[in-house]
Amino acid sequence: MLYNMEINQHILERYFAGTASAEEQAQVELYLQQTSTPGLDHFLLQTWHKANPETPVVPIHNKQPKKAWFYGAAAAAVTAIVGMFAWHAQKELPQQPLAQAFDTLYNAQPNVKTVIMPDGSKVWLNRHATLVYATNYNEQKRELWLQGEAYFEVAQNSQLPFKVHAGGVITTALGTSFNIATGNKADGSVQISLLSGKVGISLMDSSSHNYLRVLAPGEMLSFKQGSLLAHATQFNEEEVMDWKNGKLLFEKNTLADVLAKLQGRYGVNIQLNDESLIHRKVSGKFSSSVSLEHVLKSLQFVHQFNYQRTTNGTYIITSIKK
Protein backbone atom coordinates (compact mmCIF):
# COMPACT_ATOMS: atom_id res chain seq x y z
CA MET A 1 0.00 0.00 0.00
CA LEU A 2 1.34 3.44 -0.92
CA TYR A 3 2.56 5.46 2.08
CA ASN A 4 1.32 9.04 1.89
CA MET A 5 3.00 12.08 3.33
CA GLU A 6 1.01 13.57 6.21
CA ILE A 7 0.89 17.09 7.63
CA ASN A 8 0.84 18.75 11.05
CA GLN A 9 -2.47 20.46 11.79
CA HIS A 10 -0.80 23.52 13.35
CA ILE A 11 1.22 24.04 10.15
CA LEU A 12 -2.02 23.96 8.13
CA GLU A 13 -3.55 26.55 10.48
CA ARG A 14 -0.57 28.86 10.04
CA TYR A 15 -0.52 28.30 6.27
CA PHE A 16 -4.15 29.31 5.74
CA ALA A 17 -3.80 32.16 8.22
CA GLY A 18 -0.86 33.52 6.24
CA THR A 19 1.65 33.19 9.10
CA ALA A 20 3.57 30.08 8.00
CA SER A 21 7.32 30.25 7.47
CA ALA A 22 8.83 29.71 4.00
CA GLU A 23 9.74 26.14 4.96
CA GLU A 24 6.21 25.45 6.22
CA GLN A 25 4.64 26.93 3.07
CA ALA A 26 6.86 24.71 0.94
CA GLN A 27 5.90 21.64 2.99
CA VAL A 28 2.15 22.33 2.69
CA GLU A 29 2.28 22.98 -1.06
CA LEU A 30 4.23 19.75 -1.59
CA TYR A 31 1.72 17.87 0.59
CA LEU A 32 -1.26 19.28 -1.36
CA GLN A 33 0.02 17.71 -4.60
CA GLN A 34 -0.89 14.24 -3.33
CA THR A 35 -4.01 12.37 -4.37
CA SER A 36 -4.80 11.57 -0.72
CA THR A 37 -4.64 14.41 1.82
CA PRO A 38 -6.26 13.15 5.05
CA GLY A 39 -4.66 15.92 7.08
CA LEU A 40 -6.38 18.56 4.97
CA ASP A 41 -9.69 16.68 5.21
CA HIS A 42 -9.40 16.61 8.99
CA PHE A 43 -8.48 20.30 9.14
CA LEU A 44 -11.42 21.34 6.95
CA LEU A 45 -13.84 19.20 8.94
CA GLN A 46 -12.70 20.70 12.25
CA THR A 47 -12.83 24.21 10.81
CA TRP A 48 -16.36 23.61 9.53
CA HIS A 49 -17.53 22.37 12.92
CA LYS A 50 -16.08 25.42 14.66
CA ALA A 51 -17.86 27.76 12.26
CA ASN A 52 -21.12 25.74 12.20
CA PRO A 53 -21.39 23.94 15.55
CA GLU A 54 -25.06 23.03 15.09
CA THR A 55 -24.88 21.93 11.46
CA PRO A 56 -24.06 18.24 10.96
CA VAL A 57 -21.87 17.28 8.01
CA VAL A 58 -22.40 13.85 6.46
CA PRO A 59 -19.69 12.93 3.96
CA ILE A 60 -21.03 11.43 0.73
CA HIS A 61 -19.21 8.27 -0.32
CA ASN A 62 -18.40 9.42 -3.80
CA LYS A 63 -14.90 9.04 -5.21
CA GLN A 64 -14.49 12.27 -7.11
CA PRO A 65 -11.07 13.30 -8.45
CA LYS A 66 -9.37 15.90 -6.28
CA LYS A 67 -9.32 19.33 -7.90
CA ALA A 68 -6.06 21.26 -7.69
CA TRP A 69 -7.81 24.45 -6.59
CA PHE A 70 -5.25 24.95 -3.90
CA TYR A 71 -2.01 24.12 -5.73
CA GLY A 72 0.50 26.92 -5.87
CA ALA A 73 -1.91 29.37 -4.25
CA ALA A 74 -0.86 31.87 -1.64
CA ALA A 75 -2.01 31.33 1.91
CA ALA A 76 -5.70 32.25 2.27
CA ALA A 77 -7.87 33.13 5.24
CA VAL A 78 -9.38 30.23 7.16
CA THR A 79 -12.84 31.67 6.61
CA ALA A 80 -12.40 31.21 2.86
CA ILE A 81 -11.45 27.58 3.42
CA VAL A 82 -14.61 27.03 5.44
CA GLY A 83 -16.67 28.14 2.45
CA MET A 84 -14.90 25.57 0.26
CA PHE A 85 -15.73 22.72 2.62
CA ALA A 86 -19.15 22.24 1.03
CA TRP A 87 -17.39 20.82 -2.02
CA HIS A 88 -14.56 19.05 -0.23
CA ALA A 89 -16.88 17.11 2.10
CA GLN A 90 -18.09 15.08 -0.87
CA LYS A 91 -15.04 12.86 -0.39
CA GLU A 92 -14.96 9.92 1.99
CA LEU A 93 -12.93 10.88 5.03
CA PRO A 94 -10.13 8.38 5.76
CA GLN A 95 -9.86 6.79 9.19
CA GLN A 96 -6.08 6.77 9.56
CA PRO A 97 -4.10 8.56 12.32
CA LEU A 98 -2.84 12.08 11.60
CA ALA A 99 -0.01 12.39 14.12
CA GLN A 100 2.99 11.74 11.86
CA ALA A 101 5.50 14.61 12.09
CA PHE A 102 7.66 15.82 9.21
CA ASP A 103 10.76 17.96 8.79
CA THR A 104 11.23 20.30 5.85
CA LEU A 105 14.47 21.41 4.19
CA TYR A 106 14.18 24.43 1.91
CA ASN A 107 17.21 25.87 0.14
CA ALA A 108 16.67 29.63 0.19
CA GLN A 109 20.37 30.41 -0.13
CA PRO A 110 22.07 31.23 -3.48
CA ASN A 111 24.34 28.18 -3.32
CA VAL A 112 23.81 24.42 -3.39
CA LYS A 113 22.89 23.04 0.03
CA THR A 114 24.39 19.71 1.17
CA VAL A 115 22.51 17.55 3.68
CA ILE A 116 23.59 14.31 5.36
CA MET A 117 20.56 12.21 6.27
CA PRO A 118 20.43 10.09 9.47
CA ASP A 119 21.25 6.94 7.47
CA GLY A 120 24.38 8.50 5.97
CA SER A 121 22.82 9.23 2.57
CA LYS A 122 23.88 12.57 1.09
CA VAL A 123 21.55 15.02 -0.63
CA TRP A 124 22.53 18.09 -2.61
CA LEU A 125 19.62 20.56 -2.91
CA ASN A 126 19.57 23.02 -5.78
CA ARG A 127 18.41 26.58 -5.14
CA HIS A 128 14.71 26.91 -4.22
CA ALA A 129 14.36 23.12 -3.83
CA THR A 130 12.27 21.62 -1.01
CA LEU A 131 12.81 18.23 0.64
CA VAL A 132 10.35 16.78 3.17
CA TYR A 133 10.84 13.64 5.28
CA ALA A 134 9.35 12.06 8.41
CA THR A 135 11.02 12.77 11.74
CA ASN A 136 11.34 9.00 12.24
CA TYR A 137 13.21 8.64 8.93
CA ASN A 138 15.45 5.54 8.86
CA GLU A 139 13.54 3.78 11.64
CA GLN A 140 10.99 1.93 9.51
CA LYS A 141 11.16 3.78 6.20
CA ARG A 142 13.52 5.92 4.13
CA GLU A 143 11.11 8.13 2.18
CA LEU A 144 11.45 11.71 0.98
CA TRP A 145 9.30 14.14 -1.00
CA LEU A 146 11.01 16.51 -3.42
CA GLN A 147 9.96 19.69 -5.18
CA GLY A 148 12.70 21.20 -7.33
CA GLU A 149 16.04 19.55 -8.09
CA ALA A 150 18.34 17.38 -5.99
CA TYR A 151 21.16 14.88 -6.34
CA PHE A 152 21.27 11.81 -4.10
CA GLU A 153 24.09 9.49 -3.02
CA VAL A 154 22.32 6.69 -1.19
CA ALA A 155 23.74 4.69 1.69
CA GLN A 156 23.14 0.97 1.24
CA ASN A 157 20.47 -0.72 3.35
CA SER A 158 18.70 -3.65 1.72
CA GLN A 159 16.12 -3.73 4.55
CA LEU A 160 14.96 -0.13 4.06
CA PRO A 161 14.69 0.89 0.39
CA PHE A 162 15.39 4.57 -0.26
CA LYS A 163 12.39 6.23 -1.97
CA VAL A 164 11.94 9.71 -3.40
CA HIS A 165 8.44 10.95 -4.33
CA ALA A 166 8.55 13.62 -7.05
CA GLY A 167 6.47 14.64 -10.04
CA GLY A 168 3.98 11.78 -9.78
CA VAL A 169 6.57 8.97 -9.65
CA ILE A 170 8.51 7.16 -6.92
CA THR A 171 12.21 6.50 -7.48
CA THR A 172 13.50 3.58 -5.38
CA ALA A 173 17.17 2.77 -4.80
CA LEU A 174 19.19 0.49 -2.52
CA GLY A 175 22.64 2.03 -2.99
CA THR A 176 23.19 4.40 -5.91
CA SER A 177 23.55 8.01 -7.07
CA PHE A 178 20.92 9.82 -9.13
CA ASN A 179 19.50 13.24 -9.93
CA ILE A 180 15.82 14.29 -9.93
CA ALA A 181 14.53 17.55 -11.41
CA THR A 182 10.87 18.59 -11.25
CA GLY A 183 11.02 22.07 -12.79
CA ASN A 184 13.48 22.03 -15.69
CA LYS A 185 10.97 21.44 -18.49
CA ALA A 186 8.24 23.71 -19.81
CA ASP A 187 5.74 20.82 -19.92
CA GLY A 188 6.07 20.24 -16.16
CA SER A 189 7.64 16.79 -16.50
CA VAL A 190 10.09 15.28 -14.02
CA GLN A 191 13.48 13.86 -15.05
CA ILE A 192 15.24 11.02 -13.20
CA SER A 193 18.88 10.59 -14.27
CA LEU A 194 20.91 7.65 -12.98
CA LEU A 195 24.67 8.09 -12.58
CA SER A 196 25.53 4.83 -10.81
CA GLY A 197 23.83 1.72 -9.43
CA LYS A 198 20.22 0.94 -10.28
CA VAL A 199 16.83 2.50 -9.52
CA GLY A 200 13.24 1.35 -10.02
CA ILE A 201 10.47 3.73 -11.08
CA SER A 202 6.82 3.35 -10.07
CA LEU A 203 3.77 5.64 -10.10
CA MET A 204 2.65 7.38 -6.91
CA ASP A 205 -1.04 6.61 -7.46
CA SER A 206 -0.49 2.92 -8.25
CA SER A 207 -1.26 0.12 -5.78
CA SER A 208 1.21 -2.16 -7.56
CA HIS A 209 4.59 -2.84 -5.97
CA ASN A 210 6.16 -3.61 -9.36
CA TYR A 211 8.56 -1.22 -11.03
CA LEU A 212 7.38 0.09 -14.38
CA ARG A 213 10.92 0.97 -15.41
CA VAL A 214 14.37 0.04 -14.10
CA LEU A 215 17.16 2.42 -15.08
CA ALA A 216 20.79 1.54 -15.77
CA PRO A 217 23.66 4.02 -15.32
CA GLY A 218 23.61 6.72 -18.00
CA GLU A 219 19.85 6.49 -18.52
CA MET A 220 17.24 9.19 -17.94
CA LEU A 221 13.48 8.82 -17.61
CA SER A 222 11.17 11.77 -18.24
CA PHE A 223 7.59 11.60 -16.93
CA LYS A 224 4.63 13.98 -17.02
CA GLN A 225 1.64 13.30 -14.77
CA GLY A 226 -1.29 11.93 -16.73
CA SER A 227 0.98 10.43 -19.40
CA LEU A 228 2.42 6.97 -19.95
CA LEU A 229 5.98 6.28 -18.86
CA ALA A 230 8.29 6.82 -21.81
CA HIS A 231 11.33 4.72 -22.66
CA ALA A 232 14.61 5.69 -21.02
CA THR A 233 17.10 7.77 -23.00
CA GLN A 234 20.79 8.62 -22.66
CA PHE A 235 21.71 11.96 -21.09
CA ASN A 236 24.57 14.43 -20.96
CA GLU A 237 25.93 14.19 -17.41
CA GLU A 238 27.64 17.59 -17.64
CA GLU A 239 24.32 19.27 -18.48
CA VAL A 240 22.23 17.36 -15.92
CA MET A 241 24.73 17.99 -13.12
CA ASP A 242 25.58 21.59 -14.08
CA TRP A 243 23.91 23.07 -10.99
CA LYS A 244 25.91 20.88 -8.60
CA ASN A 245 29.14 21.91 -10.33
CA GLY A 246 28.40 25.63 -10.22
CA LYS A 247 27.37 25.92 -13.86
CA LEU A 248 24.31 26.76 -15.93
CA LEU A 249 24.50 24.75 -19.14
CA PHE A 250 22.19 24.51 -22.15
CA GLU A 251 22.81 22.14 -25.05
CA LYS A 252 20.35 22.57 -27.94
CA ASN A 253 17.44 23.04 -25.50
CA THR A 254 14.25 24.75 -26.59
CA LEU A 255 13.88 28.32 -25.39
CA ALA A 256 10.75 27.24 -23.48
CA ASP A 257 12.78 24.66 -21.52
CA VAL A 258 15.62 27.12 -20.96
CA LEU A 259 13.20 29.64 -19.44
CA ALA A 260 11.65 26.92 -17.26
CA LYS A 261 15.11 26.01 -15.97
CA LEU A 262 15.96 29.66 -15.31
CA GLN A 263 12.65 30.10 -13.53
CA GLY A 264 13.47 27.31 -11.09
CA ARG A 265 17.12 28.26 -10.73
CA TYR A 266 16.48 31.89 -9.86
CA GLY A 267 13.11 31.49 -8.11
CA VAL A 268 11.21 33.90 -10.38
CA ASN A 269 8.24 33.78 -12.76
CA ILE A 270 9.07 33.95 -16.49
CA GLN A 271 6.30 34.24 -19.06
CA LEU A 272 6.90 33.49 -22.75
CA ASN A 273 4.31 35.43 -24.75
CA ASP A 274 5.26 34.48 -28.31
CA GLU A 275 4.69 30.93 -29.61
CA SER A 276 7.18 31.50 -32.42
CA LEU A 277 9.97 31.49 -29.81
CA ILE A 278 9.00 28.28 -28.00
CA HIS A 279 11.00 25.77 -30.07
CA ARG A 280 14.00 27.97 -30.79
CA LYS A 281 17.18 26.00 -29.93
CA VAL A 282 19.50 27.43 -27.31
CA SER A 283 23.07 26.47 -26.35
CA GLY A 284 25.32 28.20 -23.87
CA LYS A 285 27.32 27.94 -20.66
CA PHE A 286 27.32 30.32 -17.70
CA SER A 287 28.59 30.35 -14.13
CA SER A 288 25.75 29.79 -11.64
CA SER A 289 26.92 32.91 -9.81
CA VAL A 290 25.91 35.28 -12.65
CA SER A 291 22.65 37.21 -12.42
CA LEU A 292 19.48 36.34 -14.32
CA GLU A 293 19.75 39.69 -16.08
CA HIS A 294 23.18 38.69 -17.39
CA VAL A 295 21.85 35.39 -18.78
CA LEU A 296 18.78 36.99 -20.39
CA LYS A 297 20.82 39.76 -22.00
CA SER A 298 23.23 37.20 -23.48
CA LEU A 299 20.40 35.06 -24.85
CA GLN A 300 18.48 38.12 -26.01
CA PHE A 301 21.32 39.25 -28.27
CA VAL A 302 21.71 35.84 -29.96
CA HIS A 303 18.08 34.78 -30.21
CA GLN A 304 16.47 38.11 -30.92
CA PHE A 305 13.84 38.55 -28.24
CA ASN A 306 12.87 41.29 -25.81
CA TYR A 307 12.26 40.95 -22.09
CA GLN A 308 10.92 43.23 -19.41
CA ARG A 309 10.46 42.91 -15.67
CA THR A 310 7.03 43.85 -14.33
CA THR A 311 6.35 45.50 -10.99
CA ASN A 312 5.45 42.13 -9.43
CA GLY A 313 8.81 40.62 -10.48
CA THR A 314 7.57 38.58 -13.47
CA TYR A 315 9.76 38.56 -16.58
CA ILE A 316 7.85 38.86 -19.88
CA ILE A 317 9.53 37.47 -23.02
CA THR A 318 8.40 38.69 -26.47
CA SER A 319 9.84 38.54 -29.96
CA ILE A 320 11.50 41.56 -31.55
CA LYS A 321 9.13 43.19 -34.01
CA LYS A 322 10.70 43.79 -37.39
Brief overview, please?
With 322 residues, the protein is an alpha+beta fold.
Overall CATH architecture of the largest domain: Sandwich
Outline type: globular
Low-confidence stretches: 55-98
Strand-and-helix sequence, N→C?
HHHHEEEEEEEEEEEEEEHEHEEHEE
Mean pLDDT: 78
Radius of gyration, whole Å:
21 Å
CATH topology (level 3) name of the largest domain = Jelly Rolls
State the strand order across the main sheet. 1-4-5-7-8-11-12
Structural class: alpha+beta
The share of residues in extended strands comes to 25-35%
What does this structure look like?
The longest helix has 14 residues, at 38-51. This protein is α+β, with helices and mostly antiparallel strands and 322 residues long. It starts with 8 loop residues before the first helix and ends with a strand. It has 7 helices and 19 strands. A hairpin with a 7-residue loop joins strand 4 and strand 5 (142-147). Mean pLDDT is 78; it is low at 55-98. The protein is globular, with a radius of gyration of 21 Å. Residues 247-317 form the Protein FecR C-terminal domain. The chain crosses the membrane at residues 68-87.
List keywords for this structure.
transmembrane, about 325 residues, FecR, Phage tail protein beta-alpha-beta fold, about 30% strand, FecR_C, 19 strands, alpha+beta, seven-stranded mixed beta sheet, transmembrane helix, Jelly Rolls, single chain, 3 domains, seven-stranded antiparallel beta sheet, sigma factor antagonist activity
List the helices and strands and how they pair.
Blueprint: H1 9-17, H2 22-31, H3 38-51, H4 78-88, E1 102-106, E2 113-116, E3 122-125, E4 130-134, E5 142-147, E6 149-153, E7 162-166, E8 169-173, E9 177-181, E10 190-196, E11 199-203, E12 213-215, E13 219-223, E14 233-234, H5 237-240, E15 247-254, H6 255-266, E16 270-272, E17 281-287, H7 292-303, E18 305-309, E19 315-319
Parallel strand pairs: 5-7, 16-19
Antiparallel strand pairs: 1-4, 2-3, 3-6, 4-5, 6-9, 7-8, 8-11, 9-10, 10-13, 11-12, 13-14, 15-17, 18-19
Helix pairs in contact: 3-4
